[in-house]
Design goal:
27 strands; 12 helices; 27% strand; five-stranded antiparallel β-sheet; six-stranded antiparallel β-sheet; single chain; 502 residues; 26% helix; alpha+beta
């Protein structure tokens, strides 16, 4: 084809295309727009190009408009008889859709953003950081996990939030610190090593960072407020890395009664049931389920993520006044133990003397020797159920120790019960299943203070024991995290109860 024939055919084609575009336009000649028909007919490129000749068209929510000559040279558009949508998309760096949205590829590449009025924004996608609003931004204080702990929602470990540069991802722990001092760091009234000590922040304890200046950090933790050296704190992402080491994750029940199942599915057998508000220690997560442990593994099972809220419990600083009060509590517990042992020994001695005198009188004039004896753990001296329950409560706050029997230095659930009752003259075995065979059976609806309440996974095997104290509560050695504590009698489903007091 010679040049003359080419230009003649090109000219005829261009005229026909232009006439067709104008014919299908709703606003010609004041503005030629790309209708869906022209677009599908391959005339969208010519239609959009005509806007540069007729002037800016009005904004329409159903089409994409732009000053094409400010983005793509007109001579490039006219270099072929038909310009495809993809060619325009490529030139603009976006996808021209009916609702004027920007393609994901364009955003990822930081291409110019198209505004609602069809103009090109100066902002690029790289300047915009959207925070994850599903994550909590602050901690919620509670006293249920420890004497001084708090809870925090941890649905996400990190938030993408804009900082001063609107570019950098900032840790949600940026203003939170975790002590790395071993065993603790002093919190001082002023930022000076000569200032008065007001509290102690033990290793792994959490604090809120209020300000930082000249290497000193002003913090708040529990009831303590003061200053410590910045070097003793992990913060930001460094603090996040310590969550699993020092934080304790709990699933807080958000429904009236929650089934704990043996396997992570609704077809599995129910191990036990727990009421609303109970905190269950989380040990693992799997496909919409959390594995939990109750009373240091007395019962383990799975709960659905749909019915719990995850919290993290932390230890906090202890003030000098609180440290003194804790020392006094421990001393009072030791004093109560000593007093009860003294009273028991006195009662045993009195009982032994009375029986010995009675035996001597009945055998007066006889040469036979009395063989009557009183064994310390025979139950010859027994307090009331209420006195036993009150005595047991004096050790709340003392540690849980697997296999332990010390009321002051640590005991497990059956060791705690064994030692409490031993101080009232009762000898019980150190095993919850064996203790369930002691005393007499009592209905769960007829509990009295001092009764023993037993728990079993699905009724198969007794695995935990507690002492009923009245008011729907029990005292028990629960977990290493909580120690000896008071809980609802229904913190998991009770299996049976026994009355030891004669």
């Amino acid at each position: 084809m010679n040049n003359k024939n080419f230009f003649e055919k090109f000219g005829y084609g261009l005229c026909i295309a232009t006439a067709a575009a104008a014919l299908f336009s709703e606003t010609a000649p004041t503005g030629v727009k790309a209708s869906s028909f022209t677009k599908s007919s391959g005339l969208a490129g010519i239609s959009l190009a005509m806007d540069s000749f007729y002037g800016d068209s009005e904004t329409d929510t159903n089409v994409v408009t732009a000053e094409l000559d400010s983005v793509v040279p007109v001579d490039e558009v006219l270099s072929s008889s038909v310009v495809s949508d993809s060619a325009i998309d490529s030139a603009l760096g976006l996808t021209a859709s009916d609702d004027a949205t920007v393609s994901e590829a364009a955003v990822a590449a930081g291409s110019p953003l198209l505004t609602t009025d069809g103009t090109v924004s100066d902002e690029t996608a790289s300047d915009i950081v959207t925070p994850d609003d599903s994550a909590s931004s602050s901690a919620v204080t509670t006293d249920s996990a420890s004497s001084d702990g708090d809870d925090e929602d941890t649905s996400n470990a990190k938030d993408a939030v804009p900082d001063e540069d609107e570019n950098e991802v900032v840790s949600k722990y940026q203003n939170i610190g975790i002590s790395i001092a071993d065993p603790y760091v002093n919190i001082r009234q002023k930022p000076s090593t000569e200032a008065k000590i007001v509290a102690k922040l033990y290793k792994g304890s959490k604090c809120d960072i209020l300000s930082t200046k000249n290497g000193w950090v002003k913090i708040k933790s529990g009831n303590a407020r003061g200053y410590i050296k910045e070097e003793y704190l992990a913060r930001g992402f460094d603090a996040e890395d310590l969550i699993d080491t020092y934080g304790t994750k709990y699933a807080v029940v958000q429904t009236e009664t929650l089934n704990v199942r043996f396997e992570p599915n609704t077809d599995s057998r129910i191990a036990t049931q727990v009421p609303e508000g109970e905190k269950l220690l989380v040990t693992k997560a799997k496909k919409g389920w959390y594995e939990i442990s109750i009373d240091n593994g007395a019962i383990t099972g799975w709960v659905s993520k749909d019915y719990v809220k995850i919290k993290i419990a932390w230890k906090h600083a202890i003030t000098i006044a609180e440290e003194k009060a804790e020392a006094e509590r421990k001393a009072a517990a030791e004093a109560a133990l000593a007093a009860q042992q003294s009273a028991y020994n006195a009662a045993v001695s009195q009982s032994s003397y009375s029986q010995s005198s009675s035996s001597s009188n009945s055998n007066s004039g006889s040469s036979s020797k009395s063989t009557s004896t009183v064994v310390a753990d025979s139950g010859s001296y027994s307090g009331s159920g209420s006195s036993i329950a009150n005595f047991a409560c004096k050790f709340v706050g003392n540690p849980y120790v697997w296999g332990g029997t010390s009321l002051t230095n640590g005991a497990d659930c059956s060791g705690f019960v064994k030692s409490v009752y031993a101080n009232f003259g009762y000898s019980l075995p150190h095993h919850s299943g064996s203790q369930a065979g002691c005393g007499t059976s009592v209905s769960l609806s007829s509990l009295q203070p001092g009764d023993l309440v037993f728990y079993a996974a699905n009724g198969y095997s007794i695995s935990h024991v507690a002492i009923y104290i009245g008011g729907g509560k029990v005292v028990h050695a629960s977990t290493p995290q909580t120690g000896i504590t008071i809980s609802s009698v229904n913190h998991m489903t009770p299996y049976c109860a026994r009355r030891i007091v004669k």
